[in-house]
Amino acid sequence: MTTETPARPTRPPEWLDAWDPEDPSTWDRRLAWRTLWVTTFCLTLAFAAWFLPSAIIPKLNPLGYTFTTTQLYWMAAMPGLSAGLFRLVWMVLPPVLGTRRMVTLTTLLLVFSTLGWGVRVQEPTAPYWELMVLALLAGIGGGAFSGFMPSTSYFFPRAQQGTALGLQAGLGNFGVSLVQLSTPYLIAFSGLAVFGGSQVLAVPGKPGKEVWFQNAAFVWIPLMVVGAALAWTLLRSVPVKANVRQQFDIFGNQDTWWMTLLYIMTFGTFSGLAAQFGLLMANLYGTGNGDIVSGAGATASVLVEGYAVPDPVAFVFLGPLVGAGARVLFAPLTDRTGGAVWTLVSGLGLVGSIAWTIPALTPDLSSAASLDGDFHRFLYGMLAIFLFAGIGNASTFKQMPMIFERRQAGGVIGWTAAIAAFGPFFFGVGITTIGATAFFSVGIAWAAMCVAITWWRYARPGAPRRS
Fold this sequence. Notes:
- The chain has helices at about 30-55, 70-90, 95-120, 130-145, 145-155, 160-185, 215-220, 220-235, 245, 255-285, 295-305, 320-335, 340-355, 370-405, 405-420, 425-435, 435-460; strands at about 200, 210.
- It has about 475 residues and is mainly alpha-helical.
- It has one domain (about 30-460): Up-down Bundle (Growth Hormone, Chain: A).
- Helix 2 (about 70-90) packs parallel to helix 5 (about 145-155) and helix 3 (about 95-120) packs antiparallel against helix 5 (about 145-155).
- The chain starts with about 30 loop residues before the first helix and ends in an 8-residue tail after the last helix.
- The model is unreliable at about 1-10 and about 285-305 (pLDDT under 50).
């Protein structure tokens, strides 16, 4: 009598049998870079879905809604709150689902909020709670970051992770600028309006403008379907042995907490300003957009004759563009020099640029020339903040793979990204409750604290974890 040994369960073929990117003889460079480009394409779409509300919300009242300034700030803040919560989930998914399934399913989930915004901008009939739910679901796009970035880090050797992660994060961040830059052109093109009719964008003091605002949302949906198909067809998954409980061992390492503070300084600033830039500009300098305008901005647009009132749509994409570009350009430099020195540069630059911008948060209404000067100070100061935040985004993501072993590095990347994703929420709440000047002053203090942490722990000669 013989007995057969039961076959050992095997994982689906999407899982690689073994993977060691530190061994040049076995590392599949083509697979690694293919993974990077496919996941980066999907991450760009995720950021577009995440920040789509920031391009739509400032125009809701001109489209016929009647929300207050506070309601609009809270609506713009909601994707940041939900993204932070979603990132706490997505950070543990790479070892559980694998890269292929996680990227595919996440990209398909982006369709729901994007479709909802495209439907609800066509008629000003949606209740406030429904738009808040759509803003919450848009946070899935932000949550994706904490899954995509760790899973991509598994495919590259440490010596190339600064470049790889910088490219993925930076190009993914371009999704913010892409959605904000493209929206004014998309809504003016009737040929794209396959579903739904036109709307009238009514700005006080100007003739009504016929627009097709649903285009700003619907145009992304076919790309999301393509991205999901590419992910399912071309991606593989690295076998990383760690269940959800085991991944929590990162919290016993003090560097997890130090790097969390640093990434709040960099990506928290980037995401927070990207979400609130348009509303803040409109509220301070006035665009005539109904309830969006209040306080000094509204007074300025009425009393200061000869001042050309700026339209945030013409400028709002520049900040995320500068920040994302800095992340891409400085990522290779961090591979050559280490990340800590550039995190120092980021922190010092943020202290200086925030301090430069603060006077422009209270515009001088005495003359058109003064008001115009304040506006340009505000614009250039904000762009400088985005620049230094982008540099820090690149440098911190170089530091983490150098400080932690591979599995923990992926977890820490996911965790720090999750906490920093609350940036839009904290910026919205902070500006609404304590005012822009006080909130920006807190930003100076935070950046100064992070400079001290970086020097003491990571950058100085003899630092415990030079990186």
